[in-house]
Amino acid sequence: MSQRLAVLLVLEGHIIDSLMLPQLMDMVMDLGGAFDIQELRVGHRKTDTSFCRVEVTASDPATLDEIVRRARELGAQVASEEPVRTEAVSKAGVYPEGFYSTSNMPTYVLLNGGWVPVEKQEMDCAIGIDREAHRAWCIPFYEATPGLEVVVGHQGVRVTPMERSRQMEIFSFMASEVSAEKPKKLLIGKIAAEMKAVRAEGGKILIVSGPAVVHTGAGRYLSRLIELGYVQVLFAGNALAVHDVEAALFGTALGVNLESGLPIEHGHEHHMRAINRVRGAGSLRAMVESGELTSGVMKTAIDHGVEIVLAGSVRDDGPLPDVVTDMGDAQKRMREAVTDVRLCLMLATMLHSIATGNMLPAHVRTVCVDMNPAVVTKLADRGSWQSIGLVTDVESFLRELAQVIEGEP
Question: pLDDT averaged over the chain?
Fold first, then answer.
């Protein structure tokens, strides 16, 4: 019988709450390895951390390497850790082969004898290194410039799992499943409280919005949230802005009167006429400043200094001059805008929300609202304790949220 290979792993922190320890044990067994817990100290209070030293074994080097790789992703570390390994980028826009692919979890690298936090944490990136500045940060492909050191392999990389919320328990017990039967009044009240807490601490709130916000008549409530100071960043596509301007100019969205709900004769032309007006003015801001655009989400956002990124797509009519049509440029603008964002509301838009979710570190709380349960499930699946999914009409959600924030019963 061949001798089994072994490595000693260490787990520290809220390893019970985060499910790090049971997930590690399941993973080792699933891969055909074995484990022996040599030491386990469990915290006795909610604020206490726990510690575990566990030996994992496998029958061959490849299996043991895979176990160690996955254990690192869960937040474990090798007892005798080696410094991070790097290779230089040789071709612009191309990572070195074997690069470390990041998650959205807080990550550290062992550099110059100390653990350095990885800045600009984002999933599906590589990690750039500056040894002289003692820095590490996530880099998308377009930031891979020749000569830049990039982390390769999993050696010297530590991932810290998110802990369960102690202050906003609503993100703990209500976020594990997506259902249309959740107590929405309770949830909306807790979301409003979280928004107030974020703003009191100087954090930013990001809204990712689809055109359904305008189609359902909910634009007035989003505008009110902006006026109250609860929106600092707005991500959307061409359609939200177009139909918002259409509503302001003609009182319709997709040619349907927003008050009566009835289609208007020649109303199907209204969104094209709205686009033409904006293009004639030169931009949304110019249209606001000239007095031609007097209401709507876009006007309110411009008036209140909200940072707006409108990312385009191949299906856009027009598009408006404000829309960023180059996807690389749109991603850059979005990445710059998410700095200091603490809470993100994703409202009835799947593709823009997925793009945004991929750019957010795990500590950013997300609230996903859509009538389609499949969309909510996809968007809310970012961690059991920092996401909420609501299957509901976006108009009723925004209306009640604005009322709660203003203190109405």
Answer: 90
Question: Which amino acid appears at position 244 of this protein?
Answer: D
Per-residue pLDDT at 1? 42
- For residues 222 and 259, give the distance between their C-alpha atoms in angstroms, rounded to a whole number: 17
Q: What is the DSSP letter of 20?
A: H
Q: Phi and psi (nearest 5°) for 184?
A: -65, -35
Sign of CA dihedral 237, 240, 244, 245: positive
At a CB cut-off of 8 Å and minimum separation 6, what does 36 contact? 54, 55, 57
Q: 364 pLDDT band (50/70/90 cuts)? A: very high
What is the residue-wise DSSP string for 88-113? E--BTTBPPTTBPPP-SS-EEEEETT
Distance CA 189, CA 400 (A): 9
Question: How many residues in total does the chain contain?
Answer: 409
Alpha carbons 381 and 30: distance in angstroms, whole number? 23
The answer to whether the CB of 178 falls within 8 A of the CB of 380 is: yes
Q: Give me 107's structure tokens.
A: 């990550």
- Report, as an integer, the average pLDDT of 241-261: 93
Q: What structural domains does the chain harbor? A: 1-80 (3.30.70.2690), 81-162 (2.40.420.10), 170-405 (3.40.50.10690)
Token couple for 78 = 């090798």
Residue 232 near residue 199 (C-beta atoms within 8 A): no
First to last CA, the chain: 72
**CB crowding 70-87: b at 16 or more within 10 Å, else e:** bbbbbbbbbeeeeebbbb
pTM listed for this prediction: 0.84
Per-residue confidence (pLDDT) for residue 381, from 0 to 100: 61
Provide the pLDDT for residue 408. Answer: 61
Rounded CA-CA distance 206/187 in Å is: 18
Task: Name the token pair of 243.
Answer: 């139909």
Is the Cβ–Cβ distance between 296 and 223 less than 8 Å? yes
pLDDT tens per residue, range 271-285: 999 999 999 999 999
